[in-house]
Amino acid sequence: MNAIRSEKVESIEEDNNLAAVSEVEAGIRDFVRNDVAYLRRPAPGTVSSSEGALEAGTEATVNNVNSLIQRVAGTSLAEIENLISELESLRDLLHAEGQRVQREISGYAQLSQAAMKSTRMIADNVTQWKRAADGLRNS
Fold first, then answer.
1. Greater confidence, 107 or 31?
2. Which has the closest alpha carbon to 30: 56, 76, 63, 70?
3. In Å, how far are 12, 32, 107 from 94, measured between CA atoms?
4. What is the share, in percent, of the chain residues with pLDDT greater than 70?
5. What are the tens digits of pLDDT across the range 51-107?
6. CA geometry: angle 133, 138, 139, nearest 5 deg
7. pLDDT at residue number 47
8. DSSP the chain
9. CA dihedral sign, ordered 122, 127, 128, 129
């Protein structure tokens, strides 16, 4: 079930990544198509009446690019924050499981020691009984 959930999460992350990449590419295409005009500078010494319009266009372009970068960065930051929270929950789970395994191993070690003591006691008693039986046979 975790594998299915993991695959779904990976699929959603891939879809989000593809959407973010597509959005960035679309923004770059719009930028290149619509806003490259400000790069065409008038020849030196030529005064253009559209110089004020170019500055306004340049500022709009910068604002568009900044907006695009903020949207993409916001998506990336949200993904990073989600990843961090998932990793923290996994860390907590692993820590709890580690403690559980340590308790189980400690219990097993105590049980093993008790079994060894019991086995030694039984072996010692059997040896004593054997000696006693051999002593009765010889008498």
1. 107
2. 63
3. 25, 49, 20
4. 73
5. 555 577 777 777 887 787 777 777 788 888 999 999 999 999 999 999 999 999 999
6. 100
7. 47
8. -HHHHHHHHHHHHHHHHHHHHHHHHHHHHHHHHHHGGGGSPPPTT---TTHHHHHHHHHHHHHHHHHHHHHHHHHHHHHHHHHHHHHHHHHHHHHHHHHHHHHHHHHHHHHHHHHHHHHHHHHHHHHHHHHHHHHHHH-
9. positive
Tokens of 116: 């060894």
- Total structural domains within the chain: 1
- Greatest alpha-carbon pair distance for the chain in Å reads 135
Is the pLDDT score of 44 beyond 80?
no
Q: Quick one: tokens of 124? A: 């010692």
Domain boundaries, position 119: 2-138
